[in-house]
Amino acid sequence: MPEFTWAVFPLLGIVAGVLAGLLGIGGGIVLVAALVALLPLFGVSPDAVMHVALATSLASIIVTASASANAHRKRGSVLWPTVAWLAPGLVLGGVAGSAWAIGVDGETLATLVGAFCLLMAARMAWPTRSTPATAPGDSVIAPVPRGPWLGVAGGVIGAVSAVVGIGGGSLTVPLLVSRGVATVRAVGTSSACGVVIALASAATYALVPSMGATTPSAAVAATKAFGMVGHVHVPGAVGIGLGAWFAAPYGVRLAHRLSGVALARVFAVALASVGVALLWP
To answer: For the whole model, what pTM was predicted?
Structure first.
């Protein structure tokens, strides 16, 4: 395989980084579909590709979401008290969801991811009347959700995100918006939460094979792809992360120029496109 072929990962990271800054989804919702198509070219077997795509997406999101969160932090868009309340649940859910997904066959995972994308696309395309469209510069007092209920919500968000290979934005953003948070602040807060989810989930995907391999894990272990650590394709994750780190600030700038309604609709289109691609390959 020509060496320049590896450049596809940083290029994919640029796309993911823009989406991370713009939508708070860590790029994962697009990365999974792209990696399913690309990874077999790098030696990942068809039986293992869905699991490796999920794990690699999550590993790259550590960098992608970090870049996005940092850019949003500089603009005052991250609600840190809300992140702190969500974090314990995000960690526990991420570990549990990843451990469960490792034992599920790839076709089932693809169906779950595709259906999830379409469901969330519909939710974001037709937001409720209470959806705020204000940005940090607007003269509105910003609510900051707090409380133990966020820990429970974080557990659900972390588990679902680990199973579908995303940073949790498609759940965290609607949750915060429903509590009165402006969309751009919800995106910034979601980016910070994505770092927590990605760390917990990617670590589990990387370590679980050594803790007792199931049949899908055995397929991953048998793959001849270069640079595998557990279920994570490290070269792919690093390449995507580098591209995303460069591009995420540009997505953040765009997010601060669009209304909440426009962001929600862009979000819906991205989700629906990936859902269709996974359900009808």
So the answer is: 0.81
